[in-house]
Amino acid sequence: MLAVVLVVTIVGGSVMYHIASPGVNIEEADALPIKAETLAAAFNQNESTASGSYMNKALAVTGMVEKVGTNQDGFPTVLMSGTDPLSGVFFTLRDKGQTVPQGAIATIKGFCTGKTTDVVLNQCIVVRN
User: Fold this and answer.
1) How high is the pLDDT of residue 82?
2) Residues 83, 42: contact at Cβ < 8 Å?
3) Do 105 and 63 form a contact (C-beta atoms < 8 A)?
4) What is the pLDDT of residues 4-62, one digit of tens each?
5) CATH of the domain at 43
6) Which residues constitute the domain of residue 113?
7) 81 vs 89: CA distance, rounded Å
8) Model's pTM, two decimal places?
9) pLDDT tens digits for 57-90?
10) Which terminus in the chain has less CB density within 10 A, N or C?
11) CA–CA separation, 128 and 98 (whole Å)
């Protein structure tokens, strides 16, 4: 019983430390450059392998801006085209004042958090548009 309590305490403390710790600033993160089509195709081909390669990593993704919008919290969102018309790369921009024009070729830097229908990146900044 004591061992269980000890394990739960250690694991819980570790989780809380990581949640409460300040994250890496995206401006300072070394980002892997990749094309939106390449990233989306990697997740479509083998999600497990792509997750191992890109999940929780800073990426600088370049591609054509297919759609811009705003999420429920008022933050700008950007969708870049992939090779499959049903899946691309979806970004949530960190700063409410940032934007990128639809149809532009842009580079957006952010942290990859996996794939839903699209590959998702959060805490993003526009590097070039």
Assistant:
1) 87
2) no
3) yes
4) 433 333 434 333 333 333 477 999 999 999 999 999 999 999 999 999 999 999 999 99
5) 2.40.50.140
6) 25-128
7) 7
8) 0.81
9) 999 999 999 999 999 999 999 999 988 888 999 9
10) N
11) 11
Enter the tokens of residue 128.
């070039």
Of the candidates 122, 114, 128, 101, which has an alpha carbon nearest to the alpha carbon of residue 40?
114
Cα–Cα dist 115/121, whole Å: 9
CA distances from 80 to 22, 23, 50 (A): 28, 25, 18
Asked whether residue 7 is assigned to any structural domain, the reply reads no
Q: What is the DSSP string of the chain?
A: -HHHHHHHHHHHHHHHHHHHS----TTTS-PEEEEHHHHHHHHHH-HHHHHHHHTT-EEEEEEEEEEEEE-TTS-EEEEEEEEETTEEEEEEESSTT----TT-EEEEEEEEEEESSSEEEEEEEEEE-
